[in-house]
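Lab intake sheet, docking and co-folding queue.

SAMPLE TYPE: protein with bound small molecule
LIGAND NAME: ribulose-5-phosphate
LIGAND FORMAT: SMILES
REQUESTED OUTPUT: full 3D complex as structure tokens
PRIORITY: normal
SUBMITTED BY: R.K., bench team

The fields below were copied directly from the construct record.
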Amino acid sequence: MRVHIATDHAAFDLKQYLVKELTALGYEVVDHGADTYDAADDYPELIIPCAEAVAADPGSLGIVLGGSGNGEQIAANKVKGIRAGLAYNTVMARLTREHNNANVLSLGGRMQSLEDALDMAKVFLETPFSGDPRHQRRIDMLDAYEERQAR
Ligand SMILES: O=C(CO)[C@H](O)[C@H](O)COP(=O)(O)O
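RESULT FIELD (auto-filled):
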């Protein structure tokens, strides 16, 4: 599976760690930056291109990173076709796949250890959407809203 990943400065070390660990697990990781640590970089410029890559690559998933993950989730969700979920434990990472069919996971690099973040990323990538009609119905409502806005 292809995994698109991006971060701002606040989770730069976490991004480097996840690229290494997920690649070792066999994922095809596409690194959308930041390429170097720059304390003045701005997350929308890094996260939106990553989310656009997920939207343009059916079957892929994305991981966006920042200090808290809040702004990164917001940025990713601006992109048509993206459902980005924020996680702070593995239950959240699992639920955003099972209930929301999220195609992007947002994590805060300042919120947990590298190892705990990797656990959340693995759960997110390994968990399928439940396909339950009640969850699909709600996702369809969101898609319909997105379509109306795009007109
Ligand atoms: O998490 C984030 C956005 O939600 C950013 O990574 C965070 O705001 C960056 O903070 P600073 O510029 O103080 O390092």
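REVIEWER NOTE: Residues 2-150 form a domain with the Ribose 5-phosphate Isomerase B; Chain: A, fold (CATH 3.40.1400.10).
SIGN-OFF: pending second check by T.M.
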